[in-house]
Structures are given as structure tokens and as C-alpha cells.
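can u do me a favor
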């Protein structure tokens, strides 16, 4: 079973991921549809093996099948210090 989740990259001055919390289930395959802002971003969750580069205005798709439960940090590397962080909760 595959489930689609849309995540938007919100440009500054209030950099953010929308939604701020992404809930996944161990063993389920998800298609993360990443909607780009106008600026360069990354969608990086190192503990889940995700590091997607997002050029300005270019959407991307990432497939992920979590293998362990937990709460994992999601960051935009160039905007992390400006508050562009979120979490991925795997149950």
C-alpha cells in the first residue's frame, strides 16, 4: 500500500515546512510530494536516509518506507538556523 503526503516548502521570512509534523507508520511506503518554494531548500531527515535537494521552483517526489519507530528531525539545511525545522513521527 502506498500513501501520498504533500509537504510544502515555505519561503522566508517565516521559513517552514507545512505540515510541521509528518506522521508515518513502520512498514508502509509513502510518496512524499515536495512542493518547492521559490528559494533553494533541502528536505533532510538524516536518520531516515532522506536528503532531497530542492532547487527554487522545482517540485520533487521522495519514496520512503520507515523501518523503525521514533521521532526524527526534519530540516532545511540552508534555513535550519532560521527555524525551518519539523519532525517526522514514525509509529
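np, heres the sequence
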Amino acid at each position: 500500500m502506498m500513501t501520498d503526503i504533500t509537504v510544502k516548502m515555505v519561503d522566508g521570512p517565516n521559513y517552514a515546512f507545512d505540515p510541521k509534523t509528518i506522521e508515518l507508520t513502520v512498514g508502509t511506503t509513502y510518496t512524499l510530494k515536495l512542493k518547492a518554494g521559490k528559494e533553494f531548500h533541502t528536505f533532510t531527515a538524516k536518520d531516515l536516509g532522506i536528503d532531497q535537494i530542492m532547487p527554487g521552483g522545482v517540485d520533487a517526489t521522495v519514496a520512503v518506507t520507515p523501518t523503525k519507530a521514533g521521532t526524527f528531525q526534519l530540516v532545511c539545511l540552508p534555513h535550519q538556523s532560521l527555524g525551518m525545522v519539523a519532525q517526522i513521527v514514525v509509529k
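Residues 2-90 form a domain with the Immunoglobulin-like fold (CATH 2.60.40.420). hope that helps!!
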